[in-house]
Design goal:
Largest sheet: none
Strand content: under 5%
Order of helices and strands: HHHHHHHHHH
CATH class of one domain: Mainly Alpha
Structural class: mainly alpha
Distance between the termini: 31 Å
CATH architecture of one domain: Up-down Bundle
Number of helices: 10
Amino acid sequence: MEKPTRRRLLAAGFSGTALGLLGSRAASASPDPTTPPDDDEAETSPESASVTTTTEPPQRPTAEDVPLLQFAESFELAARDLYQAAIDAGAEEETLAAMRGNHQAAASILKGMLGTQGAQQRSDAVFDRYEQDFSTNIIPELAAAAYELESTAVATHTELICELTGIDGAHMIASILVVEARQAVIMADLSGRGDDFDALFENDAQPLSAGTTSGG
């Protein structure tokens, strides 16, 4: 699957380009629209041996989806706490509270989908990874750290979409990563990189995985 640029994500709404990431998966899992051959043709056609039957992907998260969505929730809770750490350190920038609220909202939505199977707590691995850089009240430095966090969130959630089976969970993650792509652009501007097109429109961050950043 082609990695989406931030330019494509910024141009999309909640149901735009990011949801298009689901297209190739959904298409490969859709029923074959061609007219099936009759019995005689099926017996004599050599191509018939390669025809496979496919089914639509499930709507609700599967058992395999649950730990992936738990990780996404724990990532969002860690991001929320990182912005709170910056606020507690005395950083005076109203955007920080909005970012904190957006991550809390994303975590709450994922929690609502997972119910009693929700992550319940932040990923300490994610929090510890960025904590030192967020413990400052110097806005350009803080914004640079936040840019890296948001870029990693986008890369991570993009990877999760490729791994999820249930459509509902994948759509939810897609809507969240669109918001975080926009937040990365805001933080690039606050860090003094507002005229850096690579920072604004490309994402070279590496995704984190549930297996290496489990909550704790």
